[in-house]
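Work Package 3 (structural annotation) set out to generate three-dimensional models for the target panel prioritized at the project kickoff. During this period the team completed the workflow that converts sequence records into discrete structure tokens, so that structures can be stored uniformly alongside our sequence database. As a representative example, we reproduce one entry of 229 residues exactly as it appears in the project archive.
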Amino acid sequence: MHISPDNILIWQWQAFQLNATLLFTWLNMLLLTAGAAAVTRRLGRGKPMGRGQNLLEVLVSGLIGELEALGLKPAAEFLPFIGTLFLFVLISNLLSVVPGYQPPTGSLSTTTALAACVLVAVPWWGIRRQGMLNYLKLYLQPTPLMLPFNLFGEISRTLALAVRLFGNIMSGSMIAAILLTVAPLFFPVVMNLLGLLIGVIQAYIFAILAAVYIAAAVQVQEGEAGKES
């Protein structure tokens, strides 16, 4: 039993290695790109919508509603980043029921990379909306003595974001493997169904937490700007 797809070596040539994490990450990217191209190729109005367009509109409308509820307006500005995070994690988790597939989200390196994207996106949007000086003031509140604690909190919540996703996916895979050994007929079916549900929930939680962190940076600074004016 492999705890992480990082440990599954697919191909090696001298110092170059291709493990399961890299292979299935690129596979996910290919599936998302091909799916987006297929769904958006015949988008249009005034005619019956296909299943792909209907599903896409439901998904986009739902994400926009969630972003607006968090105060991220206009939602279209944040949708590409948050939506991509959600879809990547969702596809990775849902495909875990396919025999032989190793979800990249079961690798701490992948979840850390996703969390690092959030870590960069938070100050990027904060600085973009309010400017460098106003954003940096956030780390000095309520007193400059809180600077190291605020910085540590920023890093620790990003680490928690990565570990939470990795832990849930990795533990689910391990439990399914154990039950497959104990009762190979009944329990795997139940665990796969439960894994699909957990996968959707984890994708939603990851995307929403990323949006919450961005919204906190943007809205706090907007509040400060309003007081100064």
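The mean pLDDT is 81.
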